[in-house]
Amino acid sequence: MVSLISELKGVILSSLEDANLGSRGLALRLVPGGELSPDGEQAPRLDLKEAAAALAYGGVPALALAGFAVGVAGHSALPDEAAQAFALAAERVRGRVVTGRGHLGTDDVALLGIADGLACLRASGRDTTALDDWLVELADSKPSGGYWSARMRALGADLLDGRGRLRADPGTGDIDALALELCLRRTWPSAFRFTGMPARDRQQALMAELLTRDTPMPGELDRAAVWIGALRILVAGAAVALVPEVDEVVRILRATQSALKRWVWEQKPGRAQVQAARWLIDDEAHVQAFLWTVLYPIFGAELRDEQYLPGFGQLQPRYDFGIANLKLIIEVKLIRTRADFRQVEEEIAGDLGVYFSDPERFDRMIAYVYDDCDAHHPELHDGLRNALTERDARVVDVVIVRRPGMIPDRQRRGSA
Description:
The protein is elongated and about 80 Å long. It has a five-stranded mixed β-sheet, sandwiched between helices. The protein has helices at residues 2-16, 21-30, 48-54, 59-73, 80-95, 97-103, 108-123, 129-141, 150-161, 175-187, 200-212, 221-242, 246-259, 284-299, 339-355, 379-391; strands spanning 303-305, 321-323, 328-335, 364-371, 395-402. It has two domains: 2-242, Glycosyltransferase, CATH 1.50.10; 246-402, Trna Endonuclease, Chain: A, domain 1, CATH 3.40.1350. The protein is built from 16 helices and five strands.
């Protein structure tokens, strides 16, 4: 894997200088310079001043390069001079019938680069309506320049009018097209917010293909950038699955709310049952048992269950769960009444000093709160979360989960 990525880096670095300016812009937009940094040398990057200077003589490829550079700069850091130079160059290209509706109409890379820049200009408050309409018409009316790159065209148009072209599954098994899909998602995530991820089996097949096929040749800058970008995305995803970080633990705990959808609470027993099966969650021990079944398959022996911590004087605290390799405590609480929100805040706040007395063992916490109140108090959820996370930065998050709707109110189930 390391040698493959090094080989792809070599292809990209050796191809940058002589490459089409649009392809250079795409490569550095998809693969940030820090991921290409040669040993002991400065990483290549999209330089806004250099890109703007090239607009005077570089034609469509230079406009695409400048568009990618504008996109990297972002609307909040975009100098007026660079924005004006890009807009004027785009107007010049729009006025050339041959360029505007010929070569550019089939250049997927150039279309995306120009759209990237225009979207940034619009986000900065500039009126780009005429240019947006022109480029969207080109994107929608001309065939793609290449099958594997067609997704760039749909993305460029969606960046400008948000019509949702990306919602359609590209439906291709082409290795380059699927690798490109992952790279575009990483670079422009908001454009894909309503688009489902490629199925896991397709991602697995892509990884296998990238590892076994012949790599792009020197000069194939677009493909080499897409390959290295996709490999880094797939490897990062695999690493999270194998060794989840704290953010992934938060995601898993939040997802337990949806997991409660199929909780068992039968109204009548089955044919062979003496009584109906009902999985009652009524105290903290029940919540802990539920969380153990969720977390143990993921963390295995790294998950520690209710162990005592070094105490002070007569105090010997005990955490609910610890994930040793993440130095993370998961504290479980159950809330029955409105008043319990304040009590839980005080209990956790009071225990923080003891929990983190040995930072070599644990230095972060997630509070998992099961809301079993008969009256729902959603307005108190954010208050509890903010109170604890603002009190101590080591409290990473407070995950509050509401009891599943099929479990009756406390009074109706006869709880104390």
